[in-house]
Amino acid sequence: MKSLFKVTLLATTMAVALNAPLASAADAAKPAAAASDSKANFKNDDQKSAYALGASLGSYMENSLKEQEKLGIKLDKDQLISGVQDAFADKSKLSDEEIQKTLQAFETRVKTAAQERMEKEATENETKGKKFRTDFAAEKGVKNTKSGLLYKVEKEGSGDAPKDSDTVVVNYKGTLIDGKEFDNSYTRGEPLSFRLDGVIPGWTEGLKHIKKGGKIKLVIPPGLAYGKAGVPGIPANSTLVFDVELLDIKPAPKEDAKADADKAKQEAGKKQ
Q: CA 23 → CA 19, 53, 211, distances in Å?
């Protein structure tokens, strides 16, 4: 968060220094586009570069303010600009100590609001996910494993099913339960290759239910995916839906496969 403060002050400083108010991304892009059509607005490249930097930082700050509004924190943009102008004129209404304390309090507010929002979303996602999984489990051909994984084999494929130590090559599409797509190897035009035990548990378990050439739909509960933490593009406690096509299976070298088998036996012995 401290880095955000530094960027905030730098962004507003640059904007005011160039007599340009903070603008939205669209507004900031307009003068930049106009400047590209004519160099008459700038005496030299240094001026143009300075303006471009100010426009970029102003746009960044505008977006940051919008994100804070989502947390219920609405900063007064006029006061923000006024603070920068007063600092340039060496007429700040707050002492350095007051500024530091105020920013520390603001940091706490943002962290608290963000945590509350994340916890609320996590609870909502878990509730919606349970309903989605219940509805999907009622569909014809869907199977439910002890771990909570739901899957529907659309095409079994042929040969042997992959093992943990195997490298698999797949095409897939991943969505949230509302249909929002967060990943798609088809649109990227490049299949994904990975060792089967090197991905989320829902995939490691799920792909063992098909063989080379097979297709499967996986509905993965949070505990077998990214859990309460989530990742960029996937909120906390999200149930994930994957349509996966198993293109190829590449067995691990014999020594690796043997080592994995020995390790599995040892772990099984400890549980007994």
A: 12, 13, 55
d(CA 114, CA 73): 10
Each residue's pLDDT tens digit, 121-152: 999 999 999 999 999 999 999 999 999 999 99
Q: In which element (H, E) is residue 263 found?
A: helix 254-271
- Name residues whose C-beta falls within 8 Å of residue 251's C-beta, 6 or more positions apart in sequence: 163, 165, 166, 257
Query: Is CATH 2.130.10.10 the right assignment for the domain spanning 138-252?
Result: no
Q: What's the CATH fold of domain 2-93? A: Helix Hairpins (1.10.287)
pLDDT per position as a tens digit, 16-73 = 333 333 343 344 444 444 445 554 588 899 998 988 888 887 788 788 888 888 888 8
In the chain, which segments carry CATH 3.10.50.40? 138-252
Looking at the chain, the domain(s) classified CATH 1.10.287 span: 2-93
How far apart CA 63 and CA 26 sit, in angstroms, is 11
Cβ atoms of 52 and 9 within 8 Å: the answer is no
How, if at all, do strands 167-176 and 192-195 pair?
antiparallel
pTM: 0.65
Alpha-carbon distance of 201 to 209, in angstroms, equals 13
